[in-house]
Specification:
By secondary structure, the protein is α+β, with helices and mostly antiparallel strands. The protein is built from 16 helices and 17 strands.
Amino acid sequence: MLFKPSYFNMRTIVAAVGFYILSVCGFFASAAPVEIFVNQVAYEQNGYKTGIVKTDRPVDHHTRFELVEKGSQKVVFSGILQASQQVKDWSVNNWYAIADFSALKTPGTYRLVVKLAGKTDSSYYFPVQPGLLPAITIPAILQFFQHQRAQSPEELGADQHVLLYGSDKRVDLRGGWCDASGDVSKYFSHLAYTNFMLPQQIPMVTWSFINTAEQLPGLIHKAGIEEAFNDEALYGADYLLRSLSEEGYFYMTLFSYFKKDPEERRVVGLLADSKTTPDYQCAWREGAGMAIAALARISKWNRNRDYNAAQYLAGAERAFAHVALNSLKYADDGKDNIIDDYCALMAASELWIATRKTVYQAEARKRASNLCKRLSATGYFIADDKNRPFWHAADAGLPVVALVRYLDIENDRNFRKAVLATIKRAIDYNLKVTKEAINPFGYARQHFRFGGLIKSGFFMPHENESGWWWQGEDARLASLAAAMICGGRLVYPSSNEWGVQPELLKYAFDQVSWILGKNPYGMCMMYGYGYKNVPYMASMYGHGSGRGGISNGITGKDGNADGSGIDFKVEDNGNEWRWSEQWIPHTGWFLQAVTALARRENK
């Protein structure tokens, strides 16, 4: 029998449909604006390519996205958004849906478009080209470091006779790079008093330039920056050698005290709150290891600037002999830790490569073995001689990078086997901890100790050994991206153009894209590139924010001691440096990330 709805039933159906339509309209009328986050600088044609759609409630699971080509305004690709995800540690009001367009292989300039309840939202335009990421960013990074050179008349005049703190002795420390857009001091390392948080600064940047020049000579030549790029590496090496004392140690810090008078600058050891001491001699972890590594490596170029190749090598060997005897005396706690191990490993490996001497072979093997023994059952490294997890705001990838460089010369089967197993376990750990939480951006997570407990999270704890120092971790992300690719080629090889398996490639591209704008604030951290940058930061002697430099980045919520939550500020009563200030380790490590992600060249 055919069913015939009654008048009452029809009224009920119409009312229900009307209520549903009004509800849907009201849903989106009251919704917060949709935001779409993309890498604002460059996607690789064959790389992992995603955008993120942010809404204040989940999108329908059939919601489509489109890529619109800039010139023709035609839709050239479409797909379905992945299920919305909520990172409750960051916010209970925001949902993120991934738009994966990795399958798009056609070069061009596009915008990502979504339509929700009749409203269209789109991203910034972004380019997709083969080799575009390093082609844009490597010349930009060179430009930034040229800007950071401490070569104003004020700096050169003062630094050629700068006083050692607590002494009447003066030394010539001209050259080097200013540390940050707001700090014209020069550091081999800082945070020495924390023992476990020390970043590698001018020495690491110098090594980074040398490594990229050796890995990508064709790209650098094609970009027309070969002479300038090589000169920047030599410029850094000259400062390292000039900073080597007669006794055989390196001067750690040339500090400005943030004063306008350049004659106030001093060579110092540095504690919290800008308190200075005469403890300016570098231990392995305080910049000596990476400085020796850079000098030894560049000596093989057989090129001259202020010094020649023989002087670079002689300085590296003299420093190595001195630091090997005195590092524990210079270290604040008198003990070796993981930072000493990977910095000494870099020094010994580069000297072994440069000289083939057994003394460096023995030290390299010892330090590599130390790192292997530091790997915990969970997969993170142990920083001390007890149970402190190794977490680092800048150099988290350096243990793996150091082990990879060591394997460039190590041929012993047993040593190689142990180190390859360590690299594999470290990579497995980083992949696992990053996937353990809802993480639509693929942000590199980490373990740390807080309140006596081992925890995992997105950002470093604000309550730590420094007593005050925490900031964005773009250097950490870039260092891990570099480690994932360099290490992955050895333990997870693939026949693709990067030579590494897709899961590792995705991890690395996620970190780079986060820095270049695919983050919850839509902020491109490379100044002068993309569409949305942090405000300009002024500094002394003509310095300040430099085009191509990388800002500190996003942190845990201000006020959350354990680093939970999420925060990014461009104004904070003078404390905005935690997020917006450029810092040379960020840009130096970003150089290594894009070097690893560049097409490999035949050596």
